[in-house]
User: Which sequence fits this backbone?
């Protein structure tokens, strides 16, 4: 009897060990496919939403898929930090013949905050979508949202330059459709204006890719970088780089190529603005950084060409002009749109500094601005739900009846200014430190002055909310529902968390900058 019990016990252990080993094999198999699952699942879920034909079912499918995409991104980022770059060859065709998906620290970082914000915005979405988009189009909205998310994630994960263009067009075309869903007649016009300028930018990018392919016979970014004659090469390289730079500057909304952005952000539904403002321009900045530091090389861009000086000039001009324009806006969405143009200037300023500290400041500002601007547009969506207006004049005294929503604006505004203990301070401090180390004191002074412009337009809203007599709409308003406030505070609270605890923001950004510059930690 005792022997039988002992044998049963050992058999049970052996069975459990076999089950555990099989489970580990399954987990390893899934982990090895995360790079492709990140793209395939939202891409397949989008037409599924259309087939469902039901807004509620489409919402839950979109939310589930976006959360899974975030989990994939976090897992891959952790793996890149521990083990290095992840390579995935589609169809087991190795580059340069096949398409490679490649995730390093930089792309993993961008994937994580883009997918995370995509999930949080969907948590926030239902009430805002119900208020601003006709019920018959809800399932189409979620399908298009997933397509846009697919395009943005695809640009970050692919190692193939033509694939970047394909995913860029997926995200752009879906963005045009999302913007056109706005409830005013100006929304389709804003989408059309974005379509025209976006198509010009995409054409420039495609021409640049074609010229690089002509020079190298490759589309894989690593292969192009290895084969491209960077120094004293033919003029074709310079022309290709010029086309790519101009095309990406349109997508990034760099002043003076920014004219599509204010109307697109202003007239799109609030939930659409939350998503594209937090992610779209950041992914374009990611592609631009990848182009300079991964393909063209900083030596060609900043030594052979004076692009660093030009980038710095355009960055500073954009910061001052866009921030000044924001001060005079009565439409709060338009105010934040001009603010976004200015903030892109800070990111490009980091790119132009060509130092680990400066580049890490630009990269972490992508993350910080995504949190801050996504949260602030969520605040606007809460006010739109209760007050029915984005006009600052209609928000008078709303801080007394909607204190939690108004407080979220204050916190996000402090992050936008760059007040200590907020995430915005971290990135601006890194940029300022790099500028001072380079001995460029006039630029440091200009950067500090530019923060005062941010104080002006943020304070205008604070003053209206808390120190003005309540308007008729504000006096009758009630606090925004928790279903919208909780996701809003997830992003707004992140500006405080990552302003104090920086290993998973500034630390990862620095690791990405060092890898891009080819330096040792």
Assistant:
């Amino acid at each position: 009897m005792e022997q039988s019990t002992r044998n049963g016990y050992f058999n049970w252990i052996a069975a459990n060990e076999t089950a555990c080993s099989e489970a580990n094999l399954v987990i390893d198999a899934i982990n090895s496919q995360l790079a492709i699952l990140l793209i395939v699942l939202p891409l397949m879920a989008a037409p599924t939403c259309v087939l469902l034909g039901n807004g509620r079912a489409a919402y839950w499918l979109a939310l589930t898929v976006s959360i899974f995409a975030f989990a994939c991104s976090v897992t891959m980022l952790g793996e890149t930090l521990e083990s290095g770059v992840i390579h995935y060859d589609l169809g087991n065709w190795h580059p340069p013949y096949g398409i490679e998906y490649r995730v390093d620290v930089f792309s993993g970082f961008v994937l994580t905050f883009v997918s995370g914000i995509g999930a949080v915005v969907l948590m926030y979405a239902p009430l805002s979508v119900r208020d601003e988009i006709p019920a018959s189009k809800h399932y189409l909205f979620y399908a298009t949202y997933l397509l846009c998310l697919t395009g943005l994630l695809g640009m970050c994960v692919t190692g193939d330059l033509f694939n970047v263009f394909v995913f860029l067009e997926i995200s752009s075309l879906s963005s045009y459709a999302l913007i056109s869903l706005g409830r005013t007649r100006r929304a389709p016009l804003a989408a059309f204006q974005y379509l025209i300028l976006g198509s010009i930018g995409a054409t420039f990018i495609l021409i640049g890719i074609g010229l690089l392919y002509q020079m190298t016979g490759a589309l894989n970014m690593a292969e192009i970088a290895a084969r491209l004659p960077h120094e004293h090469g033919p003029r074709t390289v310079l022309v290709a780089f010029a086309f790519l730079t101009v095309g990406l500057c349109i997508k990034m909304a760099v002043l003076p190529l920014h004219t599509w952005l204010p109307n697109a952000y202003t007239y799109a539904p609030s939930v659409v603005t939350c998503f594209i403002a937090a992610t779209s321009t950041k992914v374009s900045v990611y592609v631009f950084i990848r182009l300079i530091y991964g393909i063209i090389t900083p030596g060609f861009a900043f030594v052979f060409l004076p692009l660093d000086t030009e980038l710095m000039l355009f960055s500073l001009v954009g910061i001052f002009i866009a921030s000044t324009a924001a001060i005079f806006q009565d439409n709060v969405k338009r105010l934040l749109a001009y603010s976004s143009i200015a903030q892109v200037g800070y990111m490009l300023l980091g790119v132009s500094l060509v130092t680990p500290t400066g580049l890490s400041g630009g990269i972490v500002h992508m993350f910080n601005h995504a949190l801050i601007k996504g949260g602030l547009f969520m605040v606007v969506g809460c006010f739109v739900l209760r007050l029915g207006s984005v006009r600052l004049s209609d928000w008078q005294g709303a801080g007394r009846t909607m204190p939690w929503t108004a407080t979220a604006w204050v916190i996000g505004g402090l992050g936008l200014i760059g007040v200590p203990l907020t995430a915005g301070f971290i990135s601006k401090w890194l940029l300022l430190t790099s500028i001072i180390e380079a001995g460029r004191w006039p630029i440091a002074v200009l950067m500090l002055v530019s923060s005062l412009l941010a104080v002006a337009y943020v304070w205008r809203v604070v003053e209206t909310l808390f120190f003005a007599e309540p308007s008729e709409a504000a006096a009758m308003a009630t606090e925004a529902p928790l279903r919208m406030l909780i996701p809003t505070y997830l992003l707004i609270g992140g500006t405080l968390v990552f302003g104090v605890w920086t290993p998973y923001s500034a630390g990862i950004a620095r690791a990405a900058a060092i890898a891009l510059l080819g330096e040792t930690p």
